[in-house]
């Protein structure tokens, strides 16, 4: 039985004068923080906020560079841990720019009193994930904070990769008529983490989908298709990813609700807790915008890859309602798929 006593709303008002949990949720509050406080604060030294990975020119090469922090609680969950999650998440941010990932860094903030055995499990998971992804962990840092001033292990990873000439994948390239594809079922990571928290059992085990996706992206590029946009729908789920793309490219997105792949275990958990599965995090899925005449070849390549066997087309990029995502229901109506404001599930990545 779930004990709701002591729960607090993770979606506070957006006009708060202080940092709140929702600012880290990957939704509208996160976007506001980055665009209206962080980026302006950087001044001329800052970049843009329209994607998770920067592509820069250096020594004649096109390098992709990204960084991410992981504060997931609990640190171990069905299908993974904070260790492989950090490696795969950074690899995937590079992959969404069409890059071949090469090198990662890892910085640990450890709470005093954390069992060394737990830290050993995390680093072993990182090593195994890096080996499987074909990347190397080449540098890092470690800091310790006092007992009660942290939450076990916080982990920050950065990554560098190389982008081939001619590959231009970014949100602004979404174009009216594009097919919207997804690589597999949705919401498993968020529900897997939630299932481990005290008192939350759903009668079935939902495992995280955490996985490295650069091989899948390479297979998609090998078709010769012009991939306009790739995005891994992590914090804020598919809803946040599609709304960000629609807003950046000033296009509309229309989904077919019956084609959205939400597994039964995720649907049941979300129904029980009143959550929207389209706003639940994924860590081994991607969404792609491709030319409609190339969608069939791309889907075939995705389905032939181990991490894309469940790939399907879920919608279309349209001229109407620019900046908005809608879903066409089985009854022929439409409903708006809104941008999450804060965070449905705190501390899921």
TrEMBL record:
Gene3D superfamilies reported for this sequence: PurM-like C-terminal domain, PurM-like, N-terminal domain
Annotated Pfam families: AIRS, AIRS_C
Domain PurM-like N-terminal: 51-163
PurM-like C-terminal domain segment(s): 176-321
Domain of life, source organism: Bacteria
Family, as annotated: Belongs to the HypE family.
Protein name per its UniProtKB record: Hydrogenase expression/formation protein HypE
Biological source species: Actinoplanes hulinensis
């Amino acid at each position: 039985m779930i004990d709701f006593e002591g729960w607090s709303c993770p979606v506070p008002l957006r006009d708060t004068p202080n940092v709140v949990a929702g600012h880290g949720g990957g939704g509208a509050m996160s976007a506001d923080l980055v665009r209206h406080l962080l980026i302006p604060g950087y001044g001329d030294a800052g970049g843009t906020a329209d994607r998770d990975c920067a592509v820069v020119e250096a020594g004649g090469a096109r390098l992709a560079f990204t960084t991410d922090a992981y504060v997931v609680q609990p640190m171990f969950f069905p299908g993974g841990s904070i260790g492989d999650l950090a490696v795969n998440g950074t690899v995937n941010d590079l992959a969404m720019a069409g890059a071949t990932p090469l090198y990662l860094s890892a910085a640990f903030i450890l709470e005093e009193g954390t069992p060394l055995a737990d830290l050993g499990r995390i680093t072993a998971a990182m090593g195994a994930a890096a080996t499987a992804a074909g990347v190397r962990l080449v540098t890092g840092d470690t800091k310790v904070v006092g007992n009660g001033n942290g939450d076990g292990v916080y982990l920050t990873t950065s990554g560098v990769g190389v982008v081939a000439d001619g590959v231009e994948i970014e949100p602004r390239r979404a174009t009216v008529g594009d097919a919207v594809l997804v690589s597999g079922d949705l919401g498993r990571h968020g529900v897997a983490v939630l299932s481990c928290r005290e008192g939350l059992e759903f009668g079935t085990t939902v495992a995280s989908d955490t996985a490295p996706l650069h091989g899948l992206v390479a297979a998609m590029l090998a078709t010769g298709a012009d991939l306009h946009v790739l995005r891994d729908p992590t914090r804020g789920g598919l809803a946040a990813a599609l709304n960000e793309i629609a807003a950046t490219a000033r296009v509309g997105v229309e989904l077919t609700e019956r084609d959205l792949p939400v597994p039964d275990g995720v649907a049941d958990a979300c129904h029980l807790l009143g959550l929207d599965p389209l706003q639940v995090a994924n860590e081994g899925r991607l969404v792609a915008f491709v030319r409609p005449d190339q969608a069939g070849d791309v889907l075939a390549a995705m389905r032939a890859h181990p991490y894309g066997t469940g790939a399907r087309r879920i919608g279309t990029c349209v001229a109407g309602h620019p900046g908005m995502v809608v879903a066409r229901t089985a009854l022929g109506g439409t409903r708006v798929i809104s941008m999450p404001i804060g965070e449905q599930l705190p501390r899921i990545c």
